[in-house]
Amino acid sequence: MIAEFGQITLILALLIAGAQSVLPMVGAARRDARLMAFADRAALAQFILVLSAFSALTLIFINSDFSVQLAAFNSHTDKPLLYKISGVWGNHEGSMLLWVLMLSVFGACVPVFGKTLPASLKARALAVQGMIGVGFLAFILFTSNPFLRLNPVPINGQGLNPLLQDPGLAFHPPFLYLGYVGFSMAFSFSVAALIEGRVDAVWARWLRPWVLIAWCFLTIGITMGSVWAYYELGWGGWWGWDPVENVAFLPWLVGTALLHSLMVLGKRHSMANWTILLGITAFSLSLIGTFVVRSGVLTSVHSFAVDPARGVFILVLLVIATGGALSLYAVRAHVLRGGPGFTLISKEGGLVLNNLLLIAATVTVFLGTFYPLIVETFSNDKISVGAPYFDATFAPIMVVLIGFMGVGPLMKWRQDSWANIRPLILKFGLLISVVGLLVYLYGRSVLGAISMGVAAYLAVSTCVVFGRKIGFGKPGMGQRFLAQPGAVYGFFIAHLGMAIAMAGITSMSVWAKEDVQLLKIGAHMSVGGYEFTLEKMTPGQEENYQFLKGDVRVTKNGKTVTVLHSARRFYPVRQMITSEAGIQVRPMRNLYVGIGDGDAEKGWVVRAYTHPMVCWIWLGALMMALAGFVSLWERKR
Amino acid sequence: MRMRAVLIFGLCLIASALAFAQTPSEADIEQRARHVGKSLRCVVCQNQSIDNSNAPLAADMRVLVRERIRSGDSDDEVIAYMRERYGDFVLLKPPLQANTVLLWVTPLGLLAVFLIWYVVQSRRPRKSVELVPLSEDEQQKLQDLMKKTELPS
Question: What is the pTM of this model?
């Protein structure tokens, strides 16, 4: 019954989305208020229907109703409740339903929060939102129906992929999707603005919170993925330039550019065309991300099922959405009027440069991800593009970006001159040299020294900008500190977060140490000044897996630092082995141990790592996400 | 792929560990091999270097790298040897050649073009965009208009 109910609500949602994509458009063209108002109701109805379908599927998983094929293939009765629920989106069909649920949530937010929007703009944007809904609901119903029944009904299910049975990963997809799908707002409102032929500060200020929300969730989603890969995959890395990571990073980069250009548009009425283009691009890249991950073009832990028909369907959606929007842009962009001009040596100029550099970074990651595919398509040659490529291309662009990131916010709007900030730049130069020299003396690495110097410079310059805003050291500072708009705190926290992340990334890439050895019980190895001794191996049993746990004592100069527990788990339902790393987390360095295969006679394979400042990377990233939420907060005037 | 790698963890890790353990005294060889290994792809894996892959082939490739280093090859010679044997696919850092020109030129080219554009544009004296304040007459008209069209709230 529940499955059929879910199925029917999905079909209804598709029908309503169809009407939502046509009627309001017609209404806006004819200035018919009733047709335009239909968009509001349709968006709300769509949300309620999709939410019902999603709840139905969740109930099916919680009740372990294995007459539904999806539950039978992806769930199991011997599983903690958390993973029964997260199993709903731990598979292709369910995750697409989650995608559409997010889409309908954002759609429903438009009538709820957008009461002051111009009626025609709202109607058109909701119509575009409806079109995206039609595409993805049709995709679900025709190629990936989550409610298919199974006959005969199996006694038990096949369980969730053990790698996905992890609290961190349970919430990784919802956050990521909130980010991906949140950019649909930027897309819909960009397309609507192109049709209207009008973009102004009101438009930018309305869109800004939605882009901020999408960007924050995307940041959290990516960070969670990175943390999970660090402790679950057991290779001791936090970012591998894997295609699946890259396609989540692409909309993030463009989203960052979009946030900054929206600021210019909202405050200075300039860069309208460009902002629209970024809005379209950010969502298109989200669609590409969905396509890549769901089609199996690039295989990874994320590709639950490889089915060419699905890939083709999403590719067609992608081509229609991106192609359509960009064509519209080509035809209509000239209608949008630019605001007042500015000289490039100004805050606007700095933000233009920010956008250009972020685009260069995006193009680089895009090329690195898809180049092997392109080469193979056209010439049958197989090439690889891996981390060394990105180190050589992406990293320099980021260093230049961060170099300007310290100076840009110090500039005045509209017109400034180098002479005004020259004294500061000299001081910053001195700061980079001093920090760099100290780091070099301690860490013996030129690259590390430069990079740490630049991170310190970014942190200090961010503090200087914030200090100027609040009039640091002058009377009434405390009051001014409290009286700043959310965006100022947001800027401060986000840019500081970037500096912190950069310090972490630098120290991980320059000073991390690792080794792999075959250790018998009682044997030891030394890594980065620490002695790792394998003390014992104990077997055991948990609710849905068996494990073999290894204790590794870590000592420094003969004194015990900690005992790490690393385990290998065997999941009988899926016949899969996973490894659990043993990690001691400290602000300045992590100790990390992974135990592999082996036996008492030969010894066990032990991988040991010291990771200096790795937590700073995630701390910095989370600060950026927090900053986005802080920026949402607007002081009542 | 990573999952499969985990499944066959057993055999391959022993092999790899033996490979690592072969020359404990030759710390220099070990360090160079790890360094070279980071730039070579495990050719049966998804985007993993032979240094951090658990696949059996990666273990074989690690052994091969050490053999070449031991027989006196320089790092570049080892990489050239592996490339001859496995093709361009083995190089995680693709070489600059006809079919990778776009890949290599685009990022740094874009960076250069954008920076040059910015410098050139910002040096060019632009017509300053002075905002002309409204004349008194216009100001008056605006006031009147604002009064007339006050929105019903």
Answer: 0.89
